[in-house]
Amino acid sequence: MDVLLRAEGLMKIYGAGQSAVKALNGVSLEIRRGELLVVLGSSGSGKSTLLNMLGGMDRPDGGRIRFGGKEISRLNDRGLTAYRRKNIGFIFQSFNLIAELTVKENVALTADTSQDIHIVEHTLEMLGLKEKQNSYPAQLSGGQQQRTAIARALAGRSDLLLCDEPTGALDYETGKQILVQLEALSRQHGKTVVIVTHTQEIGKMADRVLRMKDGKIIEITENDQPVPAERIEW
Ligand SMILES: Nc1ncnc2c1ncn2[C@@H]1O[C@H](COP(=O)(O)OP(=O)(O)OP(=O)(O)O)[C@@H](O)[C@H]1O
Ligand SMILES: [Mg+2]
């Protein structure tokens, strides 16, 4: 088994004294190269905090994270930024598109060589965004914004895609399409995909499901036969 990322004993504490919150309280896990991992847990259980640590958005207060054998939990800001750029695609619930850039410019943001422009165009086509490529985020529906964020993650060629509630802000059908696209990124493009969600049923499409509670992982289950996203209902 090829391990892409390994986290050991992660701690994250917000605040101090009486009001301190252990958002992560000793989290250890491996993320396998090419797997589709779903993270479940109730609100406040630490899912977004975990994703932010793994993606190098923030540093843990304890424990360590190794990506491809390299320790990233103690990198300085510059090192963390470089790590994120090179290795991580983020899909946030709030999309994080840049308002001043068009759809195409947003998607091309992480594609930095000239040959990548073909990938950008192909990706826009694939996600049904070609007609919107010159629009700005404010001119798009929520689903179109989400697809733009996914296109950017795909065109960026990062190995690890971290998705925080990718269907949260969308209607059912659009949410389902997003899951189908994330599944394709994993199954067809070999990306490692981590999806954080509140929706239990979404766990059925995963290779593994990880459950969190009170800053801890309480269960990890393997699905021998993941259900195609197309067939999942919630
Ligand atoms: N920046 C912060 N400052 C203080 N406390 C925080 C901060 N971020 C998160 N927390 C606290 O850490 C805990 C874990 O939060 P986190 O956002 O990781 O939960 P979550 O599982 O993603 O929840 P949700 O499903 O609602 O998104 C919560 O108790 C939260 O209040
Ligand atoms: Mg969250």
Polypeptide structure, described:
The chain has 234 residues and is an alpha/beta fold. It has a 6-stranded mixed beta sheet, with helices on both faces. The chain is globular. The chain has a single domain (3-96, 158-231), classed as 3-Layer(aba) Sandwich (Rossmann fold), CATH 3.40.50. The chain has helices spanning 47-54, 77-87, 103-108, 116-126, 142-155, 172-187, and strands at residues 3-14, 21-32, 36-41, 62-67, 70-71, 88-91, 160-164, 192-197, 208-213, 216-222. The chain starts with a strand and ends in a 12-residue tail after the last strand. The model has no long low-confidence stretch (mean pLDDT 90). It is 28% helix and 28% strand. α5 packs parallel to α6. Residues 14-15, 21, 23, 41, 43-49, 198 line the site of adenosine-5'-triphosphate.
How would you summarize the topology of this molecule?
Layout: E1 3-14, E2 21-32, E3 36-41, H1 47-54, E4 62-67, E5 70-71, H2 77-87, E6 88-91, H3 103-108, H4 116-126, H5 142-155, E7 160-164, H6 172-187, E8 192-197, E9 208-213, E10 216-222
Parallel strand pairs: 3-8, 3-9, 6-7, 7-8
Antiparallel strand pairs: 1-2, 1-4, 4-5, 9-10
Helix pairs in contact: 4-5, 5-6
Bound molecules: adenosine-5'-triphosphate and magnesium ion.
